[in-house]
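Standup notes, structure subgroup. Blocker cleared on the protoporphyrin IX containing FE input:
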Amino acid sequence: MPAAQFLANFPVDPADPILSDLQGNILKGHGRQFTFNLFLSFKAGKRKEVGNWIASFSSVFVTTARKQQDETQLFHDERIPGSIFASFFLTAEGYKYLGVASAKKPTDPKFGIGMKASNAALKDPNPATWSAGLNGADGVIHAMVLVADADIHQARSLTRAIKLSLATKATVVAVERGVVLRNAEGEGIEHNNYVDGISQPVFFANEVPAHTDKWDPRATPSLMLVADPGGKDGNSMGSYFVFRKLEQNVRGFKTQEKETAKTVFNLPANEASWTPAQATQAELIGAWAVGRFEDGTPVMLHGTAQQPAMGHLENNFNFADAGSDSKCPFHAHIRKSGPRTDLAGADFNKTKRLVRRGIPYEDKPRIRDAEGNLSDKPEDLPTGGVGLLFMCYVANIANQFEFVQQAWVNAPDFSQTGTGKDPLIGQPTDLSNAHPTQYHWPTDYGAAGRKDARFGDFINMRGGEYFFAPSLSMLKSLRTDPPALAKVQKTLALSTVPKLGVPVGILHDTSLFHFDPNLVSGVSVLDPLLQLFVPDKDDVGAGVVNTVHTEHTVNV
Ligand code: HEM
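Run returned:
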């Protein structure tokens, strides 16, 4: 399908050739349990080597949308899990470093100046207070690699290999680790225990839910894909990518939920004396702050959690009914960040949607019970060190992410005068709680009465950046030297390779992986489980194809 038509069309044809030059995770989440985001600052004077490295790495590891589709199908048909997943992103500074011609660069102005330039507009904390590596003190961020896998050891070993192979060319200024948290039903949750990732734009026919009369999530790829001017042709596409590390004060959220419930519902001060009905009622406060109960049940449709008949991951609702705010207050996170019918023209709101791909992080491990579930004892709940690595893909940073964060989430008078900032993620955050925001809460589910009580300021924004996920052909074009095929003279059986400490790889390009050429003159294999290192056919010169062993493993 021609590119213009592809961008404007629903559904995406999973067989469309455009998917072969497009990075994965954009049209559909990669779904892996463990992730590593490596933030790279390239060393001065290494442009050529860095370009070669990116081309080699991308040829072998970057997962295209095509490959992701094929693996999804394989999993569906044969239950064969997908291989290790990787994406590569550049910042505007990265493009500059690599000397990419203006005509080949992404043009979004916000991408061009980076997230720090929007610090005041987004009401974010001063970058000097951001996490190490993300704050710029260790070097400007040029690029990011996302590595994801179901097996933490695989993801970690590739992360380690990337670090080692880049040692002379880049500083890895930060590594952010994500781990999917799941509830008892196996659904992905965020640290406050709420199921996350339910309401998403849908691009494939097989993802359209059964009922869409109240809210239709269908979207066309123009929502987050743009032409990649650096790609091989008009069918090359990329996407802007927003990264924000949002630290969560879980204990603060859970404690305030109960305190606010006491005020709003006149519950006894001593929580231990609450009846089960009162405890259930108190859960409404958290659900009203989010817009869904912990199990995902939308408050717009139900006043208590667990509505199996309805399907608690239901997304077919809107806010058009009069008095809808007695069921889902205007301030609810999902209503502030996705107002659906609250503004004239749901179509306008739909152009603001984000393709969310966040994952929880746990720099400080959560306390878990014997079964491995998160402890919910108040004293075990973290006040920091955990949170969400918020990530989303958009076609236009100002019109989508920044618009949502500024004009909706942070704006106290959106969507009504006095609604308040988003109680989950609104900025600025007053962590001292000196000026807590008062919100208007219904006095009961569906009740006309309102009572004001405080909430919020449980998020500490720890850093972020704007990236572009270029087409695969753009990344491959960064190679200035042909692969060093001459160096591949023989292929060793891996059993003869001494322990190298890292997976040995891409044997035709000594720049990619760190190995001692005196010990190994050329190997073309590697991890046979995942076949990680089988070279891309484009990168193997005619007549110099290496033997690919799949029967040996290298210890890592
Ligand atoms: C720690 C940070 C965050 C947490 C804990 C969080 C949590 C949640 C939860 C539990 C939901 C409901 C489930 C779902 O529909 O997926 C949700 C929905 C959503 N969130 Fe967040 N979120 C966070 C940050 C953000 C940020 C930074 C944005 C954008 C600026 C955002 C935008 C959205 C949107 C657009 C929805 C879907 C609304 C809808 O269509 O119903 N979230 N979030």
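Discussed briefly. Residues 483-556 form one domain.
Next: hand off to the docking folks.
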